[in-house]
Structure formats: C-alpha cells, structure tokens
Amino acid sequence: MTPFIAELIGTMLLILLGDGVVANVVLNDTKGNNSGWMVITTAWGLAVFVGVTVAGPYSGAHLNPAVTIGLAIAGKFAWASVLPYIVAQMLGAAMGAFLVWVMYKDHFNRNNDPGAMLAVFCTGPAIRNYVSNISSEIIGAFVLVFTVFYITGAEITPTKVPIGLGSVGAVPVAFLVWVIGLSLGGTTGYAINPARDLAPRIMHALLPMKGKGGSDWSYAWIPIIGPIVGAAIAALVYMQFH
C-alpha cells in the first residue's frame, strides 16, 4: 500500500464512521436517534482509531491537511509530499461521505430537517460569530497538532521502543480527538480538519436529497482556515522547545 492510498483509505474510514454516527443520531427513524453528544464524540474518537490503525504503518496516518501542514512546518514531513497527502485526504473524505449517504439513504428520504441533513456531512456553529468560531477551530486544532507532536515522538524506555501512529499510537490519538470533542466541540462541532469538513460539504451539495437546503458556503472557510492556522501555531510553538 502506498502512502497516497493509505491516506485515502484511512480518511475514508474516518469519515464513514464519523459522519455515520452523526447520521445515526440526527436522522429520523434510526436506531440511534437522539442518543446525544456523548455518542457522537465517542464514535468520532473511535473512528480516528480505525483510520489511524489502517493508514499508520504506510503513511503515518495524518488523515488531516492541518496535521500534514503542521508536521511540514516543524520539519517533520517533506513539503513535496504535502499536496499529494491533501489530495488523498480530500478524496477519501468525499468517498466516506458518499458511503454514509448510501448507508442512510432511506433515513435521508424520511428526514424533513435540512439542518440535520447538513450536520451529517459538515460542521456548523452553535452561535454564528465568525471571530469566536474561527478562534474555536484554531484552539481545537492547536491542541490536536501540538499533542500529536509528542505522541509521534514518544518512546518506551529503557529499550527505546517507538510509539508511532500505528496500532499502538492510534489509542492516544483516539483519546485526544475524543477529549477535544467533549471539551471544545460545543461551539463549532470541532472540525479541526479541513478535509473532514470541505469534502463532505461538497458531497452534500452534489448528492440528491429532497429538501436538503443549502450547504452553508458562507461558513465553509472557518473549518478550513481555522485548523490550518491552529496547526501552524502548534508547529511554531513546538519548535521553540525543540
């Protein structure tokens, strides 16, 4: 498996399971309808575990353009590979969102709430205030990327066994995303990942769903710019200590 394919498949699994839990919670007549925020945040954390476990040995399992850019800024990832990784992440996220639509098509057909349908695919603010919204995404992405630097560099002493972002490393990354969702996700839905939001938002715009409404493009720049800025700040702060 090449790094490109690993990023594509890993991100696809991330979005299939992450957007899938939102569909299960917010769409009409599902088994998990109205099961709440704890279910959503827990499943997103476990979705990260799945994606990282599959992609980790082959690509390092970035699954997120903000992580890729942050690692490149810190000198831990080649800039020449940034664009291919982001392309793979975007394609994988689009595929994952498409599979969620296939999986829950009957429930989309029974849904009459455009906001719920949009929420399956992408994030939105609890209170629309662009300054606060982008600040939330910056802070959330900073916590994600800054902590990832320490996870990827960890070792078990004295034998110096590395803990990367493979199967073992997937556990702390899953907990990291889980706690970000629980603690910081209430304002914007914690995209903290441009591919996670943009590619599924595009799929929402393209897929046929009766009464789906608009894709809220006026907000779409927040979960793109915010995570990238947060990742860049995390990289610069990390570099001050190393």
TrEMBL record:
<dbReference type="InterPro" id="IPR000425">
    <property type="entry name" value="MIP"/>
</dbReference>
<keyword id="KW-0813">Transport</keyword>
<feature type="transmembrane region" description="Helical">
    <location>
        <begin position="130"/>
        <end position="151"/>
    </location>
</feature>
<dbReference type="InterPro" id="IPR023271">
    <property type="entry name" value="Aquaporin-like"/>
</dbReference>
<dbReference type="GO" id="GO:0005886">
    <property type="term" value="C:plasma membrane"/>
</dbReference>
<comment type="similarity">
    <text>Belongs to the MIP/aquaporin (TC 1.A.8) family.</text>
</comment>
<feature type="transmembrane region" description="Helical">
    <location>
        <begin position="39"/>
        <end position="61"/>
    </location>
</feature>
<feature type="transmembrane region" description="Helical">
    <location>
        <begin position="82"/>
        <end position="104"/>
    </location>
</feature>
<feature type="transmembrane region" description="Helical">
    <location>
        <begin position="219"/>
        <end position="239"/>
    </location>
</feature>
<dbReference type="Pfam" id="PF00230">
    <property type="entry name" value="MIP"/>
</dbReference>
<keyword id="KW-1133">Transmembrane helix</keyword>
<dbReference type="GO" id="GO:0015254">
    <property type="term" value="F:glycerol channel activity"/>
</dbReference>
<protein>
    <submittedName>
        <fullName>Glycerol uptake facilitator protein</fullName>
    </submittedName>
</protein>
<keyword id="KW-0812">Transmembrane</keyword>
<feature type="transmembrane region" description="Helical">
    <location>
        <begin position="163"/>
        <end position="184"/>
    </location>
</feature>
<dbReference type="InterPro" id="IPR022357">
    <property type="entry name" value="MIP_CS"/>
</dbReference>
<keyword id="KW-0472">Membrane</keyword>
<dbReference type="InterPro" id="IPR050363">
    <property type="entry name" value="MIP/Aquaporin"/>
</dbReference>
